[in-house]
Amino acid sequence: MNWPPTLTRALMAAPLVAVAVVSLSPVGALAQRPDGYPSKAIRLVVPFAPGGTADSFARILGQGLSERVGQPVVVDNKPGAGGMIAADYVAKAPGDGHTLLVADVGPNAVAAGLFPQLPYDPVKDFAPVVLGTSVPMVLIANPSLPANNLNELLSLAKARPGALNFGSAGAGGISHLAGEMMKIHAKLDMTHIPYKGGSQSLAGILSNETQLMFVTGSSGLPHIKSGKVKAISVASRQRLATLPDTPTMAEDGIDNFIADSWSGVMAPAATPRPVVDYLARELRAVLLEPAVNKQLTDRGFEVPALGPDAFGRFVADEVRKWSDVIKTAGVKPD
What we know:
alpha/beta, ten-stranded mixed β-sheet, disordered N terminus
């Protein structure tokens, strides 16, 4: 899948409130809207607590969407259960286009493989609207590790089975699954060390408690630039503009290795297609507006801005990919 070219990064700081109403300015393409929609405020449900990247992404989108459709956009944080509470809430909401979900790789892809009794179906119970942002994962290493590229790392790992530790932000998270996927693709024997969050896992690699870790490009970049860790490879189709000298996994011999953290917008499955298409049109316009695009790309986010059909195929592929990794590796949630 070829995504539109990326530009450069950054998210706005989010106010620390559980529910916020984004400002209203009716200047959107009102003539293109479905009859009677939107007739009231749109609720944008965020599956994580205020202050994080998903929350900030929602507020940026909400501001722009409100200005275009002429109704307030309410950002509603519903954290808990790794994002599944919010996803289940939106899956069961009325399909009238007034309740939307900030979809995330965790509850909308990974969870399907981790939880056989998931109370919603991440493919069937949602109408994909737009894939907003994607952050490729970067494989980093402690500077003391005697490997400076992927080929050297694979040789070292195979020569010392079980000796290398790779950290993650928690069992079943994307940083863990990326490591398990590398083990599967390259037939490696490495030990997984789960931490309770990204900052703790980064502390583990900085102290050499672990030697390797997959991190998002945005969170790992400051440590890479300072020399506290070294970048081994990027799990993306193309090299990152922020790390132009770091090759992709495919360049170093592991084909079809794509791992990223992504966010988008979904509606309940029963939402009429004209409403979905209208929302997709307006949200893509927000994402591709130069000032908004720069706010996102200035922090290392790619902005694919995929519409409903392409986003739907992307999600189905993500569910299959991570479910296969989880099953093969025998991953269990925390």
